[in-house]
Design a protein that fits this description.
Elements: H1 6-13, E1 26-30, E2 39-46, E3 49-57, H2 61-74, H3 79-83, H4 87-93, H5 103-119, H6 123-128, H7 157-177, E4 180-188, E5 191-198, H8 206-221, E6 226-229
Parallel strand pairs: 5-6
Antiparallel strand pairs: 1-2, 2-3, 4-5
Helix pairs in contact: 1-2, 2-5, 4-5, 7-8
């Protein structure tokens, strides 16, 4: 597992305010289903104050933790106070984030900005959209992050394996420091199968490990990937 703070780990294992909000009157979406970090933020605003906040996410540990911490912080905030919340503020609430995971707080605050913009629309305009919180979470896809080398061409299967092994080698000291390890099994289409060893195989904490690894691999391979654990033999 990456070096996450106790606060972040608690928000991931015990997310606050996760689920739909039937009486939401403000809704904001950010991220992408395709890249695995889609976030829907639903707010109930009464008298200029956020009375309720809920979220749905397709993301990994840091994404869920960021949304959980944000919804917890938003309750009882005025609209002006909510607008003032930044990605840096949210990262501080989580006790810090590794650099490669900072997109989690950026997506969360982008969803907040979208929700507040939605609420600012004329009431008739929002009413015409109906119960949007009941619609499936489906956000317009974003392009996967390009490889660090900036190469435009697609990697060959052999090059993808080499790139994935290089990412694992770079992250291995973090895995081993936490008493675990991750090994590449294979890459088939969008799926990257890995074997989790030691503490990394813990059923609850594996999501944190896989989430951080998935984003690094998407950058290295230049396309969207889904990292999944291989069956234990």
């Amino acid at each position: 597992m990456l070096d996450y703070s106790p606060t972040l780990t608690d928000h991931f294992l015990n997310p606050r305010n996760r689920g739909t909000l039937a009486d939401a009157n403000a809704l904001g979406e950010a991220g992408s289903v395709r890249t695995g970090d889609a976030l829907r933020l639903m707010l109930r605003i009464e008298g200029g104050v956020i009375a309720k906040a809920r979220f749905e996410s397709t993301g990994s540990g840091p994404d869920i933790a960021a949304a959980s911490a944000l919804t917890e912080a938003l309750c009882a905030k005025t609209l002006a106070e909510a607008r003032a919340i930044t990605a840096d503020d949210l990262e501080t609430l989580l006790g810090g984030l590794p650099e490669e995971e900072r997109s989690a707080v950026r997506v969360a605050t982008a969803a907040l900005a979208a929700a507040l913009k939605d609420y600012a629309q004329p009431p008739a305009f929002r009413a015409a959209k109906g119960a949007r919180a009941a619609q499936p979470l489906a956000i317009a896809p974003l392009k996967p992050s390009p490889p660090k080398s900036g190469a435009a061409r697609a990697l060959s299967p052999e090059e993808e394996v080499e790139a994935a092994q290089a990412v694992l080698a770079e992250m291995r000291p973090q895995f081993r420091a936490d008493g675990g390890d991750v090994e590449l099994v294979d890459i088939v289409g969008p799926r990257v199968r890995v074997a989790l060893r030691g503490s990394c195989s813990d059923c609850q904490l594996a999501g944190l490990t896989l989430g951080g690894l998935q984003k690094r691999l998407a950058e290295a391979l230049g396309r969207a990937v889904l990292v999944v654990p291989a069956p234990v033999r």
